[in-house]
């Protein structure tokens, strides 16, 4: 019997966990799998270990492990594969396969554009769009954001910059000081490249407050619960289910 185990990030902010759960349960409605469970990378139970145990207890013989992550970094390359290897040792009779994060995708860039236009403020030639990423020491993250910036420029947003909340530079604080000070006639649009930011939203709010905010700074919504993202995740999982060679 087939199972899909979705791995959400987890957060100390209950509202963020609930939002991610609601997103995943919406995605589940379009997935043809008899067993579908949610677990978490950190801070929330059940963890991956317990999530896999539940799938097996419910009768799973094949488990698709699908992370709810935007880009490939430490969680996707090390943490989750390590847990799958441990599960394989516990359950040698079970077949495990891991799905990929969303990755860089034109349709996700479309969602970014929608988040910018939701502000109801027209973006002019003197304005700057600052993409705010979670951050990672993995060099692939910087490469991914460079590609995202190129896609944004093709959509007419020429003044694009990137900063990060952790692990690498430029930091959000450095970028805010750099751009906020030099935009007397333009505006700075902060565009979080995050799904359900949780405590990270508080970090962004504090950084804005520390520089005094101002009418020339516009904070956009994160990617969040969007139908395009839901369909992308469904497509990923359903494609693995229908691919007989996958297992």
TrEMBL record:
It comes from the Bacteria. Its EC number is 4.99.1.4. It is an enzyme of class 4 (lyase). GO terms for molecular function: sirohydrochlorin ferrochelatase activity. InterPro entries: CbiX-like, Sirohydro_Cobaltochel/CbiX. CDD domains: CbiX_SirB_N. SUPFAM superfamilies: Chelatase (SSF53800). Keywords: Lyase, Metal-binding. It comes from Sporolactobacillus spathodeae. This is Sirohydrochlorin ferrochelatase.
């Amino acid at each position: 019997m087939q199972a899909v185990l979705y791995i959400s990030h987890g957060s100390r902010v209950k509202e963020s966990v609930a939002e991610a759960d609601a997103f995943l349960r919406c995605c589940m409605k379009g997935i043809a799998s008899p067993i579908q469970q949610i677990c978490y990378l950190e801070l929330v139970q059940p963890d991956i270990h317990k999530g896999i145990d539940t799938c097996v207890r419910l009768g799973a013989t094949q488990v698709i492990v699908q992370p709810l992550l935007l880009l490939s970094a430490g969680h996707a390359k090390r943490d989750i594969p390590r847990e799958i290897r441990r599960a394989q040792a516990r359950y040698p009779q079970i077949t495990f396969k891991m799905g990929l994060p969303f990755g860089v995708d034109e349709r996700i860039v479309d969602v970014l554009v929608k988040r910018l236009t939701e502000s109801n403020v027209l973006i002019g030639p003197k304005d700057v769009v600052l993409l705010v990423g979670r951050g990672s020491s993995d060099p692939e993250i910087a490469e991914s954001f460079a590609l995202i910036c190129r896609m944004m420029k093709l959509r007419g947003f020429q003044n694009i910059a990137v900063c990060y909340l952790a692990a690498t530079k430029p930091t959000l604080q450095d970028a805010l000081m750099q751009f906020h000070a030099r935009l007397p006639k333009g505006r700075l649009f902060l565009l979080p490249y995050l799904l359900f930011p949780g405590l990270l939203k508080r970090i962004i709010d504090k950084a804005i407050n520390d520089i005094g905010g101002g009418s020339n700074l516009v904070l956009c919504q994160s990617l969040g619960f969007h139908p395009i993202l839901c369909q992308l995740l469904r497509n990923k999982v359903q494609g693995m289910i229908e691919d007989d060679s996958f297992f």
